[in-house]
Design a protein that fits this description.
Blueprint (H helix, E strand, L loop, with lengths): L3 H13 L6 E6 L13 H8 L5 E4 L6 H6 L8 H14 L6 H9 L11 E6 L9 E6 L1 H11 L15 H12 L3 E3 L3 H6 L7 E6 L3 H6 L25
Length: 240
Amino acid sequence: MVTTWNKETAALVEVLGLEKKPVAITFTNDEPDVPRPKSKYLCRAIKQAADGRSFLIDMECSGCKGGSFHCGLTPPPQGKARRTLQEFLTSGERLTASIVSFLRMEELGSPPPTGLSDRIFLGPMEEAPIRPDLALFLCDAEQACRILVLDNFWDGVPQQPQVSGSMCHSAIAYPLVTGNTNVTFGDWTARRVQKYDRHTVFVTIPYERMANLVRAIPECSAGDATAEMPPEFLPSPDDD
């Protein structure tokens, strides 16, 4: 099946030399014909979707309570459940120093999309059966740089990166809620447990920005346009 997002994906994979498949993420109340896993962490589903697998995840099969509320499938924990999460983050996972720093991570970011949809689709963009809300790229630093340049080529508006907090927050929820393109490294626990390559960077494009990003490829030197550099802008051959 040829779709708009299929063609956009092919153009970006070719010009950037991407090794991993761009991942489509869609928040939906529909039930496309996609496997529903018994249990799946969202941070693992991202990695496996970039390798070609597709998933439909709901609150029943989301394997991580943190991922479930960060992406809106369940309400944020309250009462005893919140105390347990505070203890885990500060004394177990050790990703934040205190319950105060945990609060700041939450409140100074973006809110979760609580109750937005019943399900989340994740899969390779080239095979996505429904329109993506987000296009997520697993790439290296150079490819991430090129994507970001292509993204603001037309309007010049700087991205507003959100790199703190969980991977499912920074790579999924933040760009979904704000409409901002985001670049992040994920969180240390997700990287370590899911065995992401040490060079992997995550860039998420709200899908409504994709057409202009692809349209920039032939016009921008971060795509395949030829850069013309005057001699005075080139480094001196004697510069060591």
